[in-house]
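Propose amino acids for all 102 sites.
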């Protein structure tokens, strides 16, 4: 998963290099916008988000995965698999309770 995130950062950098306009100094103006980005700007949604904000959920995922792998060394594999599977149920329950979603 982390490799995939870094690949996305690399592809973004390559896209900016390819679509950079040689006559202007600002590369952001030269990058063509996707249809979703155009709609977001029309509705005045926040579009300039700091990519380092990905570090917060990535750190949480890394810590959770590390703790689960440590737990795997201390419990039987069947218990580990059941605990791993219950994550989906807990997430669904919390979404219903806090986000009021079904």
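Proposal:
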């Amino acid at each position: 998963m982390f490799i995939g995130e870094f690949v996305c950062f690399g592809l973004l950098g390559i896209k900016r290099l390819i679509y950079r306009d040689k006559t202007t100094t600002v590369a952001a103006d030269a990058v063509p916008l996707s249809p979703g980005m155009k709609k977001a700007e029309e509705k005045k949604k926040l579009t300039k988000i700091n990519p380092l904000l990905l570090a917060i959920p990535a750190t949480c995922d890394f810590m959770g995965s590390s703790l689960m792998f440590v737990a795997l060394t201390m419990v039987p594999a069947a218990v580990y698999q059941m605990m791993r599977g219950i994550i989906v149920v807990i997430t669904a329950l919390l979404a219903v309770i806090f986000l009021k979603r079904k």
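The chain has one domain: 2-74. The chain has a mean pLDDT of 81.
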